[in-house]
Amino acid sequence: MRYFLLSLINFLFFTGIFGHDFTHCSSNNLLEVTNINLNPDPPIINSNLNILVNGKSNKEINSMNGEIIIKVLGIPLLQENIDLCTYVNCPITENEVVNFNITQNIPSLIPSGTKIDVKLDVKTEDKIEVSCLELNFKAEKEIIISKYLK
Questions:
Q1: What is the pLDDT along the chain (150 residues), one digit of tens a residue?
Q2: Domain 20-143 coded CATH 2.60.40.770
């Protein structure tokens, strides 16, 4: 039991520091994303998922319009456009550190353990690529830890 708790604490601690794996889907990025954290990680079905993105601008960015595409089993489940300047103060100066948090609900219709693919494609008003990111994860049902602490 003690080993389980120590393993759980280590997992939660190191997941928060090192972030979640992601890939860049574009090599020409005005915003170089360095880290993505999911909270909770793994995401919980029928609850909110907070996606914290950290990066640094390579040039001045006046606007950031993002398109989020969420696919389950390769089938598009959600496609949404968002103005990321509502999450950060635009314009962003060159070499500025940028942090923003996007909250998205994980629908209850998704079976536990199903692979979910997320793509965030961000462009300026002039359609210049700011950043493009892809990540995937498996959403889980909520686990009640208190029953394991007895």
A1: 444 333 333 333 333 445 789 999 988 889 999 999 999 988 898 899 899 999 999 999 999 999 999 898 888 988 999 999 999 999 999 999 999 998 888 888 888 888 999 999 999 999 999 999 999 999 888 765 544 555
A2: yes
Domain residue ranges in the chain: 20-143
Q: Is the pTM of this model over 0.70?
A: yes
Q: CA nearest 122: which of 73, 62, 74?
A: 62
